[in-house]
Specification:
The complex is a heterodimer of chains A (345) and B (291). Chain A is mainly α. Chain A has helices at residues 3-7, 18-32, 39-50, 52-64, 72-89, 96-121, 128-145, 183-205, 207-217, 219-224, 229-255, 265-278, 283-302, 308-321, 327-344, and strands spanning 153-154, 157-158. Chain A is 70% helix and 1% strand. The model of chain A has no long low-confidence stretch (mean pLDDT 85). In chain B, 74% of the residues lie in helices and 3% in strands. Chain B has one domain (3-284): ABC transporter involved in vitamin B12 uptake, BtuC, CATH 1.10.3470. The chains are: A mainly alpha (345), B mainly alpha (291).
Chain lengths: 345, 291
């Protein structure tokens, strides 16, 4: 099968070719949106968009492979800090931002593979993974919060304790002198995120995707068919960490800072809730819900609204109790049914 | 330095750490063992317990008389959560995790909105005694006593009462238990409410040792979850005791030399190694070779 057939495979919304039109329209509208805004609003919109890989990482592990991880935000944070340390120390080199991106993603993947080794090769029960990844996130936050002072200086970069790391280098392309900001940064994020999305959708519809979904459906049966599920779970977990780290790096390139509370307990809830609300078995639905939810909580918190956490918690409760398949996915399926109803008449 | 006081001090510290782990985790452990559900709002229910204690102490009630109220409020909260949500999620453990997490967020933020960022802290009752150059807080000794009492009480309920017999039957095989006339739904709601009550009681007794704030539960959940993961779901009593015991033995020396945060990090790595060795929890080890 060619990449296009794989992209239109059955494991996401839009099996028919006509839905390719929807995806293209989605992409086109995302590229047009900032044009009607100013530079500053485009920068804000880039923030909503850059969270998409983080949401997709939860979709991959939880929705497709049946492993619930609360640790994605930790991989997001580790990649952000690693990018800050690496890029911040190598500013003399050409294209040091790219070294930072590579180093950030690799550090997260390394950390994820250590955790994944202990979790999956022990064949623990499935409730242990969310609990231990949550503890891991909490400990990482506590650790980073106590790194204030000059003894926590790596090269030229201060970890900064509770106030976080500041002055993280922006993204810059080798052939352009100025760092990316506003429109240019937005299109950089859009390109990066769209590439990640397309690659992930092709992957999930490939034969490897079949194995991953099979593990979710019945891990014992998959195992007796001859697949070493431990290796596949390990692989998926590390891949998801790489996805989360893409968001982490884009985030620090966007805001030039990161604080420990960005990977705290509340932040850890967010990607899981985006996935639950979007419909965790669809990449497209979660990409939509991620943009929508980050927009929503960004608007609430910039207004200083203390209810924003309550809304997020209530959204989690509602998506579990009322919409098993997520709100976006439920809407989508029912719109399809409505369409069929009209066709019959 | 004499050796005897040092040993006594080490034993005291290990027991304190163990009692802390037992108090934090016993409510979770019961719910997990009986119902295979993890309540991620556990820390927030502990916070509710501490809030009840603090509010009642402010009203003029002596601290020790507030503890039954902590337990009762916890039971009520547990009953409500079980009735509204958990009973629909028995076969969906991961969904229950996400749901209870959302509830935890609502409870903590709700407490912040209603009562503000802090409640008056409770003065630590009793004083301290000194022996051989080390000081011992009498309240910490009391906490060790409470932890031991709770474990003994749960052992008694499980092994010596009819309710406990039914509970153990449900734990072993819920399907067959219901065929012999045990009301499984009722057992589950009693268990969940009891677990929440124990969490709130633990929050109440631990309240004097910490600041009382909406997100105070966060400091308890990491040790509590680690204890539960290491202990496993197969046996409530042995799981709790083995796990809290071995983790306290790991935490005490690390915490003594490197500080309490390093102690918690040590717990996490110990948990990773222990689950690698005993994926079903320490409760699955048979010390005396019987099955």
């Amino acid at each position: 099968m060619g990449p296009l057939q794989l992209f239109l495979g059955e494991r996401d919304l839009g099996k028919q070719k006509s839905s390719l039109i929807f995806f293209l329209a989605y992409l086109v509208s995302l590229s047009i949106v900032p044009m009607v805004m100013g530079d500053y609003e485009a920068m804000n919109f880039a923030y909503f968009l850059l969270n998409v890989p983080l949401g997709l990482s939860v979709t991959l592990v939880w929705g497709y492979c049946g492993i619930l991880s609360f640790g994605q935000i930790a991989f997001f944070g580790v990649a952000g800090y690693a990018y800050g340390i690496i890029a911040g120390n190598l500013t003399q080199l050409p294209a040091y931002e790219f070294i930072g991106i590579g180093g950030g993603i690799l550090s997260s993947m390394l950390l994820a593979s250590i955790l994944a080794y202990f979790l999956f090769f022990a064949r623990v029960e499935n409730w242990i993974i969310p609990v231990l990844t949550l503890v891991f996130t909490l400990l990482l936050e506590t650790f980073l919060a106590q790194t204030a002072g000059y003894q926590w200086k790596i090269g030229n970069v201060l970890l900064g304790g509770y106030n976080g790391m500041t002055g993280i280098p922006s993204m810059r392309l080798p052939w352009i002198d100025d760092p990316l900001y506003g429109y240019s940064f937005y299109y950089y994020v859009l390109t990066f995120v769209a590439l990640v999305f397309v690659a992930l959708r092709i992957f999930i519809n490939s034969k490897y995707g079949s194995i991953i979904v099979a593990i979710r459906e019945d891990s014992l049966r998959t195992e007796v068919l001859g697949y070493d599920i431990r290796k596949w779970q390990f692989f998926v977990f590390v891949l998801a960490a790489a996805l989360a780290s893409v968001s982490g790096i884009l985030y620090v390139q966007w805001g030039n800072y990161i604080t420990p509370s960005q990977l705290g307990l509340v932040a850890a809830a967010q990607p899981v809730i985006w996935a639950a609300i979007g419909g965790r078995s669809s990449l497209l639905a979660v990409s939509l819900s991620t943009i929508g939810m980050t927009w929503f909580s960004f608007t609430l918190s910039t207004q200083g609204n203390q209810l924003s956490l309550i809304f997020i918690g209530a959204a989690a409760v509602a998506s579990i109790m009322l919409f098993r398949d997520g709100i976006v996915l439920t809407l989508w399926n029912n719109v399809g049914k409505l369409g069929k109803l009209f066709e019959k008449k | 330095m004499e050796i005897a006081p040092l040993i006594i001090s080490l034993v005291y510290q290990a027991l304190t750490a163990g009692a802390f782990l037992v108090l934090c985790s016993i409510g979770l452990m019961i719910v997990l063992g009986m119902m295979n559900i993890i309540n991620l709002a556990h820390g927030e229910i502990m916070m509710i317990g501490a809030y009840v204690a603090s509010l009642l102490v402010t009203e003029g009630l002596p601290f020790f008389l507030t503890l039954p109220f902590c337990f009762l409020v916890g039971v009520l909260v547990g009953l409500v959560i079980e009735f509204l949500f958990i009973r629909y999620l028995y076969s969906r453990i991961l969904s229950a995790l996400v749901l209870t997490w959302g509830l935890g967020l609502i409870i903590a933020q709700g407490a912040l909105l209603i009562y503000g960022p802090f409640l008056p802290s409770i003065k630590i009752p009793f004083g301290s005694i000194e022996y051989g150059g080390f000081t011992y807080s009498i309240y910490q000794l009391f906490l060790i006593f409470v932890a031991a009492l709770l474990v003994a009480l749960i052992y008694f309920i499980l092994q010596k009462t009819e309710l406990g017999l039914k509970a153990r039957a449900t734990m072993q095989n819920p399907e067959i238990a219901s065929t012999i006339g045990i009301n499984r739904k009722k057992m589950f709601s009693i268990t969940f409410a009891f677990g929440a009550g124990l969490a709130a009681l633990a929050g109440g007794v631990l309240a004097p040792t910490t600041t009382i704030a909406p997100f105070m539960g966060t400091q308890f959940v990491a040790p509590a979850f680690i204890t539960v993961v290491v202990g496993g779901a197969t046996n409530i009593i042995t799981g709790t005791l083995y796990s809290a015991g071995s983790l306290a033995a790991i935490r005490t020396p690390i915490g003594m030399y490197l500080g309490s945060f390093a102690g918690t990090v040590g717990l996490f790595f110990a948990a990773l190694i222990l689950i690698r060795l005993y994926p079903n929890g320490l409760a699955s080890i048979r010390l005396f070779g019987r099955r």
